[in-house]
Amino acid sequence: MAIELEKRDLRSYELRKRKHKQIVTIITIVSVIAGIGFIIFAANLILHKNYTSYQVIHKTKRSDSSSAKYDSYGTGVLRYSRDGAMAMDGAGNLLWNGTFEMKDPIADVCDKYVVISDRGYKSLEVFNGEGGMTTINVPDPIIKSEIANQGVVAVLMDGDDVNYIKIYSEDGEELVSTRTINEKDGFPIDLSLSNDGRKLVTSYLSISSGKVQNKVTFYNFGGVGQNYVDNVVGGFDYGQTIIPNIEFINNNTVCTFGDDRFSLYSMNQTPKVVYEETFKSEIKSIFHSDKYVGFVLDNGDKEDKYLILLYDLKGNVILDKAINYNYDNIYVSGDEVILYSNLEWTILHNDGEEKFHYTFDSDISYILPVNNIDSYIIIDNQYIEEVKLSEAKK
């Protein structure tokens, strides 16, 4: 009898123990879910917070000429001109620099790497983000160059009757050379290189029977591309629609921007059409990030003179908003659209809500993102300022 009581007590104890563990597990799960929910709520609260002004965190005196150009570089800035380039953090501290002589410098940035090319001439400079600099001389005048995240550079050149696309390593070694003939293939307009340096897309314009023809060609220089003639894994004819701009939006997505339309392609190895749209209104501006493509369209005779459209990479409309802002530049940063002119600055959430609008007292030249939330770099003719959005006046 005593043994049976002990067994019942033991079973009762084990049952209570299991129930206790279940309760603890449930409480833990609920706590984790609540914690995640709070984090998401807090993040959304921060991301959708509205601001009225900004505070200057760092201020650096400009020491360059008015012809110098600026671009985003990580959380800092890239400055380049005819006689050299340098990268700085938001506080104005030097990260690296290099000198050269160019007549018409153009830049492309991918992660820490930068390529600066002398457009219309035959030299370019590759910066590795750690102080290293390589000069590459090419055989024909440069139309455009792009750099990948390991320093591989694609260069589109304009020859007399024959045009070349060449791909170079970070050290200047020629890796790939592709030739096109003007009479057969047309004239090169644009190219874009994938982040990993293995894929390339080009836009060529030709004239046939008195009519303009535009073709976009996709190359793959990896293992899959070796199975195709000249590494060409796809091509699309756009007829008389001109495609002046093509971009790898991310490593596996390409967008072609036409004079009245756009097309999204997936390209893990070979291109496949994801989405296409033709606009009835004139395209005023295009912009994109690794998540979105966007357009500003003429809005006709309506009170708001422009229409902003923002798409995800599947072609879904994320933002459709009529606006009346004055702007000269527009870009997307994180989940926000930034517009600015020399005197006005506007930030829109991707749901169309106005996050920030500000009018400057004097002309500004650049507004560059730092953290996609509330930090930016403002550049005018005299200063470089790292600023943080605020709710109070300066």
Q: What is the molecular shape?
A: globular
- Kindly name the structural category: mainly beta
Low-confidence stretches: 38-45
Could you give the count of β-strands? 32
Task: Tell me the major beta sheet.
Answer: 4 strands, antiparallel
- Report the average pLDDT across residues: 91
What is the overall number of helices?
A: 2
Pfam families: DUF5711
Transmembrane segments: 23-47
InterPro entries: DUF5711
Protein name: 6-bladed beta-propeller
Task: Tell me about this structure.
It comes from Anaerocolumna sedimenticola. Keywords: Membrane, Transmembrane, Transmembrane helix. There is one protein chain. With 394 residues, this protein is mainly β. Helices cover 13% and strands 51% of the residues. It contains two helices and 32 strands. Strands 1-32-31-30 form a four-stranded antiparallel beta sheet, with no helix packed on it. A four-stranded antiparallel beta sheet has the order 2-3-4-5, with no helix packed on it. It is globular and about 80 Å long. About 2% of the residues have low confidence.
Entry summary:
The chain is mainly beta. About 15% of the residues lie in helices and about 50% in strands.
List the helices and strands and how they pair.
Layout: H1 2-47, E1 53-61, E2 69-73, E3 76-81, E4 84-88, E5 94-99, E6 105-110, E7 113-118, E8 123-127, E9 133-137, E10 142-147, E11 153-157, E12 162-168, E13 174-181, H2 182-185, E14 187-193, E15 199-208, E16 211-220, E17 232-237, E18 245-250, E19 253-257, E20 261-266, E21 272-278, E22 283-288, E23 292-298, E24 306-312, E25 317-323, E26 329-333, E27 336-340, E28 344-349, E29 354-359, E30 366-369, E31 375-379, E32 383-390
Antiparallel strand pairs: 1-32, 2-3, 3-4, 4-5, 6-7, 7-8, 8-9, 10-11, 11-12, 12-13, 14-15, 15-16, 16-17, 18-19, 19-20, 20-21, 22-23, 23-24, 24-25, 26-27, 27-28, 28-29, 30-31, 31-32
